[in-house]
Design a protein that fits this description.
- The chain has 269 residues and is an alpha/beta fold.
- The protein has two domains: 152 residues, Rossmann fold, CATH 3.40.50; 76 residues, no CATH class.
- A four-stranded parallel β-sheet has the order 2-1-3-4, sandwiched between helices. It has a two-stranded parallel sheet with strand order 5-6.
- Helix 7 crosses helix 8.
- The chain starts with 10 loop residues before the first strand and ends with a strand.
Length: 269
Amino acid sequence: MADTDTRTSAVTLFYSYAHEDEPLRDELAGHLKILERRGLIRPWHDRKIVAGQDWANDIDAHIAEAELVLLLVSKDFIESDYIFGVELKQAMQRHFERACDVVPIIVRAVNIEPEDAEDLHFLKLQCLPTDLKAVTSWPNRDEAWTNVAKGLRATVARIRERRPPGSTSPMTPALPAALPGGALVDIPPGTDPVLDGIVKRVVGHIDEAEFERTGQGVIAWVCDQLARETRTLIDLPDQKRVLWVDDHHENNRHETAALLKLQVEVVLV
């Protein structure tokens, strides 16, 4: 049975992107996996279309149902006639009707000037990351995606809060079963490739840190334990922040990278 509580129904999310930026879409999906695991978002993109489906109608239907549309802006995004003629046109129309939120995300550097907003209306919207610095231009890619994820977390919360009482997002499925305390039931490794990739990279950063310090990597059974603990951290409902006091932060880059993969904000002092 679908949820009828506006506080628990997932926000339907649509990715609008050029296929040249598919690896960047996957990176963003990984950083939003925490929200997906908590049942806060239900994302969709055109790679989920299976053989035999009418892809154009399927895309139109999902844009029409989306409460949140993410525009992954790059040179190839702006160059795509299909995106501008179909996806963007429909998404912006729904945005102006207050039927959905549209958030542009600058994923690769592209020349955009203030006067361009007169023709590219999506540029009048609040964009991410902060200060419109393209994701791929950040020295640390995970910091860029964490900046984007924090902005989207606030957007998702706003969408859920403004729903009329008793409303649900379109086609909202029941949420995964939960354990006492609100943690989601663990998904076995191999079931979710994106989640598995996050866990693998977090454990990898910790292994690299151990190797730099001792000359030996993390032993196998500890890696397994780290993987289980990483999955537990992903399920924690609250956003975390770490205050790291150290006069040689460069020695902790692997640990910092692991925390950023989990959307844990690291404040260095």
